[in-house]
Design goal:
The chain has about 90 residues and is of the alpha/beta class. It has one helix at about 55-70; strands at about 5, 10, 15, 20-25, 25-30, 30-35, 40-45, 45-50, 50-55.
Length: about 90
C-alpha cells in the first residue's frame, strides 16, 4: 500500500485508516479514526466529534497503558482488558 500525505485536508463523516499516511494541518469531523499499527504521522491536526477505533497492535498498546492508568481508555468497548488480572472474589 502506497503512503499518502494529506496537507490541510478536511475529512468529514468518513472512516479514516491512519496507518501508513501523513496528515499535516488536517481536520477530522464526525469521523471514525482507525489505527492498527500506529505507523502514521499527525502534525497540527484537529478532531471534532470523532471516534477512535483501535485494532491489532494499537489496541494491545492501549490495553498495556490502561494497566498503569486504570480507566484511562476513552471509549466504551464493553470488553475486558485481557492483560488485567481478574479481581479475586
Amino acid at each position: 500500500m502506497q503512503s499518502k500525505e494529506y496537507i490541510e485536508h478536511i475529512f468529514e463523516n468518513q472512516r479514516i485508516h491512519l496507518d501508513g499516511n501523513t496528515y499535516r494541518f488536517c481536520s477530522f469531523k464526525n469521523c471514525e479514526v482507525v489505527v492498527n499499527q500506529g505507523a502514521f504521522v499527525l502534525s497540527h491536526c484537529g478532531f471534532e466529534n470523532c471516534r477512535p477505533i483501535l485494532k491489532g497492535n494499537a489496541l494491545n498498546v492501549a490495553y498495556f497503558i490502561e494497566l498503569f492508568f486504570p480507566g484511562c481508555l476513552l471509549w466504551k468497548s464493553g470488553k475486558q482488558n485481557p492483560y488485567r488480572k481478574p479481581k479475586p472474589e
